Amino acid sequence: MARRDHTGLHSGIYGSYQEALAAVPPSRLAGWDHEDSSTLWVNQIDPVKLSTYPVFFWLQQLLWPGAALVDVGGSIGLTYYGYRRHARLPPGVSWTVVEVPKICAQGAKIAQRENAANLSFLSDLKQVGACDVLLSAGALQFMEHSLPGLLESLATKPRYVLLNKLPVTAQPDAWTLQNYGPAVTPQRLFNEQVFMGYFTGHGYRLRDRWEVQDLDCLIPFHPERFIRHFSGFLFERE
User: Fold this and answer.
1) Whether the Cβ atoms of residue 212 and residue 227 lie closer than 8 Å to each other
2) Is 23:198 a contact under the CB 8 Å cutoff?
């Protein structure tokens, strides 16, 4: 349990974000707000995997001219660049990434280099203005306050919530640690009933759900916590 230096591995079960954070070894960086984390994808800004395509499919259906998309935990704009490589955004679409400060700074530099005029970065979800489509692809589980907290931080509720690559399980809510290379970060394992109830409680209905087969969660010494595949969701406000 003391060895956490292999990329992609998980370790431990904890009752809260803070408890998991306190278990990060002193020799390792914790969380995501680091220079090394911000440069993970600078040489491949538009990686596309099988798990990305449900998001691309639905973005083609959901976006309209002038729509405002907010991408929570969107890194340096990975989904934006991947989508732009495969499809054309409708005219006037704004794409705002909400990230930690170090990644925001790196993303802004790359956006200038790539002439991505409709891509911008913020480090506080409460600073977001209009939001028609809320996107988050594999980030909510790393946030201390995501559910609840996500929709409550927005000035207006988006029409659509598009989520991908989330560890959702029938087991009770819990936290684990994930080593992603540059650092070790707390990762939440969402209880499905609580997760779904959060969105239905805010007036959303489930429109689509899919399995993310290229991601799983295996925690040594906790076989009951094994998650065979992650999940993606599309919610629409009723």
Assistant:
1) no
2) no
d(CA 232, CA 162): 8
Which H or E element spans position 192?
A: helix 192-201
Say yes or no to pLDDT of 117 above 80: yes
Residue 7 confidence class, pLDDT cut points 50, 70, 90? low
Domain boundaries, the chain: 49-176+201-237
Identity of the residue numbered 190: F
What ranges in 63-100 are assigned the alpha helix state H? 78-86
Return the closest-CA partner of residue 27 out of 3, 56, 44: 3
Residue 76 to residue 210: CA distance in whole angstroms: 25
Task: Tell me the CATH number for domain 49-176+201-237.
Answer: 3.40.50.150
Q: How confident is the model at residue 3 (pLDDT cuts 50, 70, 90)?
A: very low
Integer Cα distance of 21 and 184 in angstroms: 9
Give pLDDT tens digits for 26-53.
Answer: 999 999 999 998 998 888 887 778 889 9
In the three-class reduction of DSSP (H, G, I as helix; E, B as strand; rest coil), residue 168 is classed as strand
Ramachandran angles phi, psi of 219, nearest 5°? -110, 115
Residue 4: predicted pLDDT: 40
Strand-pair category, 174-179 with 10-14: antiparallel
